[in-house]
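User: Can you predict the 3D structure for this chain?
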Amino acid sequence: ELFAAVEENDASGPTVTPNPLYLALWVAFLGYGVFLSPGEMLDSSDTNIIQSFIEDPTNGSGAINPLLFIVFNALGIMPLVMAQ
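Assistant: Here is the predicted structure, written as structure tokens:
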């Protein structure tokens, strides 16, 4: 389970104790993503792709790989489908 224990306190509400294994995994993933992942922070190629999405949300110019465009847009649609 994500949380090791949930205890009820009378005055301040429930006390949640996180599972140390999951906490260590999250810290490891965040540490890798911030400090060890390839590329550089705010690289011009990443900024160009984001700017292309903002300028042309329908990808009419074809500057973005169509597969990336489909997956990026599915990230907003799939949670709605799964919630039904």
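Residues 66-83 form the longest helix (18 residues). The mean pLDDT is 78.
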